Amino acid sequence: MAIGDDRWAGLQFKSVSYAGLEPGTRLIVLGAVHGNEVCGRQAIERVIAEIEAGRIVIRRGRLTLVPVTNPLAHRENQRSGDRNLNRNLRPTDSPVDFEDHVANWLCPLLAGHEVLLDLHSFHTAGQPFAALGPENNTGTVEPFAQAAREEALARRLGVSRFMDGWLDTYARGVARRVRAPGATPGRATLLNTDPRYGVGTTEYMRAIGGCSITLECGQHADPSAPEVAYRAILNALAHLELADLPRPAPLAVSEALRLHEVVDKSDDGDVFARDWSSFDRLKRGDHIGTRKDGTRVVAEQDGYIVFPNPPAQAGQEWFYLAKASPRNWLPDPAEAD
Predict the structure, then answer these.
(1) HEC string of 111-166?
(2) What is the pLDDT of residues 186-245, one digit of tens each?
(3) With 32 labelled, which of 71, 217, 319, 331 sits at a CA distance of 20 to 30 A?
(4) pLDDT tens across 268-279, in order?
(5) Do residue 85 and residue 122 come from a single domain?
(6) 171 vs 87, 256, 273, CA distance in Å?
(7) CA angle at residue 266 from 260 to 268, to 5 degrees?
(8) Residues 44 and 136 both lie in one domain
(9) Burial of residue 163 (number of CB atoms within 10 Å: 0-12, 13-18, 19+)
(10) 293 and 161 in one domain?
(11) 336 occurs within a structural domain
């Protein structure tokens, strides 16, 4: 697919930036990384309108707002344009699909900032939550040294459920796909067996020295999701002191979970055993779903199901499994401001 393809006609990238008179944090907020997740776009447009009307003033640092990160997916009202932007994000000298062009625009934009807030929603019912990076570590999968800063911001976004373990889980998923016999050749297989599969906006931001949070604001069509996203932006502006807004108090952690497994759909005929919602509890032996060949998929341990996706395509993520996180949260996140 070449530049000028009919599906790409009229598309362009847009970001809106405001800079304060005083030095401060450089924050970027993304909406519609997945095109059918519109709560972030709605919240960002609301914030832009309030800044333009003078009701919010950026006094310190810099704020960049991206209402629609993936304009092709957004225009087609679907999760992806040509592929999932939020699984293989990196610049390339040889762009193949539309998301490669998004990455070539977005990655330099991210590099000009310190903190990323990425606003999402999910397919099935469930309460909002924040996804963070790992605890501080010097490992090879996702070395990191700003966990305290992320935790402090996460506690002030207006949600009390938190989750980590993303890249470790994806590394195991990639290893399993590489071992899987009979993988169908093609670009999708090439991408989801790439060792970097799982690197999206927030993981890229951490890899270049920043910190970042994905805020899952609720189910796609939940009318409260745009309000969750809007409040999170205002709270981030206040907590990071970009604007003189009421400082949010840190919420207590009601639940902290860690992803530990991603389960792919092997065939379009794979079906769930019931209508699952994110964070439904699982007991060992619970029947989760059935493969097309009749094989039952059951929980191997107590835990939770996360992001169940009934319409997932064969070879893509069907659902995730999580368990209680052993993470030790800061007793006072204000120490990390």
Answers:
(1) HCCCEEEEEEEECCCCCCEEECCCCCECCCCCCECCHHHHHHHHCCCCCCEEEECH
(2) 555 555 555 566 789 999 999 999 999 999 999 999 999 999 999 999 999 999 999 999
(3) 319
(4) 999 999 999 989
(5) yes
(6) 12, 21, 27
(7) 125
(8) yes
(9) buried
(10) no
(11) no
